[in-house]
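To whoever picks this up:

The parser on our side crashed when reading a file containing two proteins. I've narrowed it down to the boundary between the first structure block and the second sequence. Both blocks are reproduced below exactly, byte for byte. First block:
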Amino acid sequence: MKAYDVKKGNVVEYNNTVYQVRDIERSAAQGRGGNVKFRFTMYSVPGGNKFDLSLGGDDELREVELSRRQATYSYRDGDAFVFLDDEDYTPYTLDANVIGDDAGYIVDDLSGCYVQIIDDLPVGLQLPASVAMEVIETPPELKGGTATKRPKPARLSTGLEIMVPEYIVTGERVLVSTASGEFAGRAD
């Protein structure tokens, strides 16, 4: 596939290594006849090692066949996370280094996840767009706080820290965007 066809989440092969594309920066050409450049931030699958690659729009990348199975988080086994297939209950075990920073979004019975599989081996995880989590610690609301847009820090049940509006209180459940790591609204 051409570099301009690559989207976030695609799995590609480069120099005999399989990578998942996590971020794409497009730089417009300067002057006449300039070529558009794409800068890909990719992580090796499996392993999760970061790799940056710059290509021209017409450069080729080989897409890797990847199957995705919808799964629900079941339990943690040491450093590994175990997900159960929603259809046939096949367990998929993913190491913490494969999940990386996404581990902060994994809560009990988290559904809507997709385990990515290459050659019958689970190699990656795609989280739902947002996750409902409980606020376990946040400063109290100041009088008149709802009229202003001052955010305050909040620690969530997995240890993740985000900024929330002042009206959010300890014990409340909030939605957190898994793409940006930001407050996405009240849950429930």
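<<boundary where parser fails>>
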Amino acid sequence: MLKHDIVYLTEDTSHDAAIELINEEAFGPGRHVRAAARIREQGPHDLSLSFVCTDDGETIASVRMTPVLAGGVKAHLLGPLAVRPSHKNRGIGRELLRIACAAARRKGSEAVVLVGDPPYYGPLGFEKVAWNALTFPGPVDPARVLVMPFAEDTHARLKGVIAWRDDEGR
């Protein structure tokens, strides 16, 4: 049995090349044309809410959080979330998700939004957003738009455009 030294760290710029490789493996060349990628192109992700997992010093998984305004909700867009094939099905993605969502909540985010698989994300605290409530900058399957709300009125305010939000006054 192999011993692993699994460590979760806040992302920094030294992880960029490894994260690009992990996302290429997980999502392929079409990842840049997806609606969520269009939002991420509008501005930078929040490094303080983005995390990597390393195994014996090698970056093997990552999750990024991008500040967005989702209708009337000050939220974060989760993703991409990806784990190297060699480390899948070990709970690493779920732990990265847990760490990132907890950090976003502590930072004052009202919700975490993502486009993903309801059977995977539902048990982790994500709920479906009302059909076509959010308008993305490209096609998206409304059945895959999910939210982890941090306020009671989140669903009522998730109506309108979802776009990058400038938290730094840029």
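After patching the parser it read the second block fine. The chain has one domain: 6-164. The radius of gyration is 15 Å.
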